[in-house]
Amino acid sequence: MNLLNIKNLKIKIKNKTIIKNINLKINKGEIHILTGNNGSGKSTLALTIAGNKKYNISKGKILFNNKNIKKLSIDERAKKGLFISFQENIEITGLNTQYFLYKTLNYIREYKKKKILNLIEFKKKLLKNIKIINFPKNLLNRSLNKGFSGGEKKKNEILQILLFKPKLIILDEIDSGLDNKTIKKIISIIKYLKKKKKSFLIITHNNNFIKYIKPNYIYLINKKKIKKII
Amino acid sequence: MTKNKQQSDTGNKIIHIGKKTKSLIISKNISNNYSSNTNRNLIIINKNSNKSKNFTKCDSLLLSNKCSAHTFPTIKIKNNSSIIEHEASSNYIKELQIFFLLQRGINKNNAISMIINGFCENILKMLPSEFYIESKEMLFINL
């Protein structure tokens, strides 16, 4: 059974076609890589899967867990296990990072009908995951992404993946602007999550990153069409 | 906080009398629908209150594209050694911020209230704890 199945998809902004004839199948525990020139529509595909209303689907459908997600709202898709790490990390002034993580985790757990964590249980979980990614502890009490360095923002995204445990993770240029040590760490986390049957769709330009990650499939978007390379 | 066709006109007055006195004004307002928010500040520093300081900050958050926020500072300094700073900003909730929070699995109402609470956070913090909790909930109901 496919986790994500995109059938003959055509994406438009207003009346302009961005990409067409997309067929993509992602199974559990697979890593797919998406490459292509700047402005070729890689991020558009990611945002369309997330449910951004700016992009409309004029043809085809997206099945997630064998269900058409066209009518689901953005937050429902997220609660079903879709996680997208954006290219630009959004800053929200005044929203405490720790508070954001706590609230969001409980919203997701509530949806999955799991027990809601209290602050102490949450803190234990958080500290465990912080150690894995080496996230600086003092950032937890600052505003979300406000004044974080580029690397710290990316680490924050990875921390959220570890906490929220989504099924399909779409990473949009997670490797840009990171030092070698952090990239290695992220690769090892991706491999660890792969073993746990999580699926990835990774958008990247970095050849070394692709080499180390050992993906199952690589796609190239060119001239509005998607092509399988490997 | 104003909504529908409400118009609020609020302000405060600070008069420095003694030497080396300091004052701080932080005002935050949120406007929605067709409403307008006006904030007037009067700061007087007397001749004898040398080396006084004042800092005024007016932040406004606009939730619709029909609402407005205004700031009118009036400053009267009667000596040369005092310092006054005035700062005003207007913000709106960016679509991307909402999209980001929705994508993480927060519903729309909670996402908006998270951003608005973030906007007021630094003044709500200064309130006594009972009032702090209540005002947070009040904000949520008003939305």
How would you describe what is shown here?
The complex is a heterodimer of chains A (230) and B (143). In chain A, 36% of the residues lie in helices and 30% in strands. In chain A, helix 4 (119-133) packs across helix 5. Chain A is of the alpha/beta class. Chain A has a six-stranded mixed sheet, sandwiched between helices. Chain B has helices at 95-103, 108-124, 129-142; strands at residues 7-16, 22-31, 36-45, 53-62, 68-77, 83-92. Chain B has a three-stranded parallel sheet, with no helix packed on it. In chain B, strands 2-4-6 form a three-stranded parallel sheet, with helices on one face. Chain A binds chain B through residues 50-52, 73-75, 78-79, 83-84, 86, 88, 90, 92-96, 100, 103-104, 107-108, 111, 143, 160, 164, and chain B through 94, 96-97, 99-108, 110-111, 114-115, 117-122.
Q: Largest beta sheet of chain B, briefly?
A: 3 strands, parallel
Q: What share of the residues of chain A does DSSP label as strand, in percent?
A: 25-35%
Continuous helix count of chain B: 3
Find the count of extended strands of chain A (DSSP E, 2+ residues).
12
* Overall 3D shape of chain B: elongated
The counted number of beta strands of chain B is: 6
Supply Rg of chain A: 18 Å
The helix content of chain B is: 25-40%
- Beta-strand percent range of chain B: 35-45%
Percent of residues of chain A in helical segments? 25-40%
Order of adjacent strands in the largest pleated sheet of chain A: 6-9-10-3-11-12
Distance between the termini of chain A: 21 Å
* Multimerization state: heterodimer
Computed over alpha carbons, the radius of gyration of chain B is: 18 Å
Structural class of chain A: alpha/beta
* Spatial sequence of strands, sheet with the most strands of chain B: 1-3-5
Low-confidence stretches of chain A: none
Which structural class is indicated by helix and strand composition of chain B? alpha/beta
Give average pLDDT of chain A, whole number: 85
Give me the strand/helix succession of chain B.
Answer: EEEEEEHHH
Note the overall shape of chain A: globular
